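Problem 3 from the worked examples.
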Amino acid sequence: TRLDPTGAAIVTDGNVRPYAVKVAKAIKRVGLKTSIHAIPASERSKSMTQLQDVLSFLERQQIDRGGCVIAVGGGTVGDLAGLAAAIWQRGVRLVAVPTTLLAMVDSSIGGKTGVNGRRSKNAIGAFWQPSAVISDLSAIETLPIPSYRDAFAEVVKYAVAMDKGLFDLLQRNGPRLVERDAAMLERVVFRCVAAKALIVAKDERDRGPRAILNYGHTAGHALEAATGFRVTHGRAVAFGMRVAARIALALDLCSKRTVDSQDELLDAFGLPDKPPHADPKRVLAAMALDKKARRGKVAWVMPRRIGHAEIGHSVPAPVVRRVVTRSLA
């Protein structure tokens, strides 16, 4: 489907601006002028201040309802630019061009956009589906090693929560993926995108089955918020998965082998079980502010076995407190 926009505006960050320039040149060749707005490359750019700056940029570029916003970057750029697209002129089209592995396998798919509140992750946002997602694996060839490996927290999430076949694939091909084998990477990205798209198609607004995608995110988002977003999203989700699995074990919902298998796979992708520096009390308080919480109570996603997790579990507060405190010790 041709978009034929009346105008285009590119939002990117300082790290990948050169790649955004390439996108702008490609667009210019088909006769469409565009400008670039670069935000600081930090999770802290997901703020109301930066959102206002992006909206002002769209206004200067005179983007009308026939125009589109092109998000060139990782999850932060996608979330921020996506929210701007959702509310500018009451909604203009969005094209996502993810440049990180994490964005390719997760945040660019599904239509969730948003910025952070002062004490909570992604508290201000909207559902706004992109008109297109263009993932070019060459964009991640120069991605720093920590950022590349961070993405595998989300990949392992899919495997543990809903796809044992993917789990087995990751176990067998871990070294190839760590070395960025393009053919194997393409298989994994495709599998993750397909898995998420199928779930989102069933539950776009996150009111039912889509909750499975929150595996590892309850404690993960709380850790991010409690540390002022100094912990990367991938590291936080890996922490959150370890917490969730240990809670499941404590409640006799899964076996120790399930916990160990998950830990081993996270370790293989450079996401070790090293507790981040965070105050357990702050992390626990942040959980109550999670946007999915109801009256301060969170419905947990619990692993039952590799490839199968369940949504909607209520966990006694003392169990959560004990596991989180031990995990941060």
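Problem 4, a separate protein:
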Amino acid sequence: ENNILIKDAQSLEIAHRLNTVVLDKTGTITEGKPSVTDEYWNPKTENKDEYKSILIAIENQSEHPLAQAITTHLASAKSELVNIANFEAIAGRGVKASINGKDYYVGNEELIIQKNVAMADDAKAQIDRWETEGKTCILLADSNQLIAAFAITDKIKETSKRAIQSLLDMGIEPIMLTGDNEGSARIVANKVGIKNYSASMLPADKAKRVEQLQKNGQIVGMVGDGINDSHALAQADISIAMGKGSDIAMDVAKITLMSSDLNQIPSAIKLSKLTMRTVRQNLFWAFIYNIIGIPLATGILYPIIGFQFDPMIAGMAMALSSVSVVSNSLRLRKITIQ
């Protein structure tokens, strides 16, 4: 009904105690449907079609949204079949593949720097401009030089800003952790109202940050949608996955938002608060009921006023206790949590 899948009762018990929610950027705060806006080619590149074929073949091996943006952008290119060997995903950086005995790299600027690939000044300047504009840059290079670069943007979900404000109103601090560049992270964070964010983070870095928050006494919820988020999701007190995310993220997560709408995070927390309030009410009334009913059933008033429960009435009273608890719980179905 509310498009929130809760896998176990423990998550429902903990969610109302959250005071920090960590969010991934791509596919969580943004729509996860990136598109290429600009491209740069090394002036020394002679056969663009050949390199486009190589890039398409490499990116077709990846499930990352940015890879899909590249292949969609190059869909109209004249591509040829390319045989890939030794495909390797480099966490938080990109991918490596061998074609005809030659190594190629596709990923962010950190990957190219890490592999000591030469980059011309004009290419570096262009990439810096794109990042200043908040765009994500994907680079193609071989072992010697940068071949091409692509600028990618991903639209922020319309509901993200409202969801972040709802968390702030509930006294919960939102934190954004992303593997993307500083410029893109800053612009997205400012647009949705997040003050605390970190960029260029590897999957292990995200998990360490969550662990550090927990050591500081925070009850942490982690929201993500990709394979890169699975480590942090497993570390968090409450793990929340996007319904349109990767299978491994949904498998690790204890709560799944079926429509990937961030407004369901405050809704899930409200549901947890209402559920725990109902549990406490049921325990209270059951306790009071038994405090009064058990002595009466044992005949405590018989020596005083000669009153004693008929066994049939006592049985009906016991059944009524269960009915009242169930009826109070069923009230949750009529409460709007959106």
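Solution to problem 4. The mean pLDDT is 86. The longest strand covers residues 146-153.
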